[in-house]
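Incident log, structure service

09:12 report received: a user says their structure output differs between two submissions of the same chain.
09:20 pulled the input from the user's history:
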Amino acid sequence: MEHLGGCHCGNIHVRLQLSKTPQESPLRACACSFCRAHSTRTVADADGLFEMWADDWSLVEPYRFGSATADYYVCRRCGNYIGAVCETAAGLRAVVNVNCLADRARFTQAPATSNYDDETSETRLSRRAVNWMPAVVRRA
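09:34 re-ran on a clean worker, output below:
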């Protein structure tokens, strides 16, 4: 299933391919301060694919915090949080904020809350390599 979206101002574009319907896709709500502040509902599908590109990359902020193991992409113009991308042993992986998708209302599962504060960087990257989805970030 393909899902399109992006930021509110239209600068960042997203294409998401999932192996399950939106209603069957488990959602997460990370307990970190960044995700709580953005009221995220994230999805990842190890059998899916996340693609992201921007019209103007100077308006895209790859924000790193905490363990600094992932880039959290935020539009500098409209402030919309798109998703997180990191390099793992399995390649580039991502988790996507479904709130940036055009069909976000179709993602109806209640998000499970997770707290990753006690993870080491190695454990975190290993978990992401398995659970996050393959990603392509196109920079022109």
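09:41 both user submissions now match this output. Likely a transient worker issue. Closing.
09:42 reviewer note: The radius of gyration is 14 Å. DSSP finds two helices and eleven strands in the chain.
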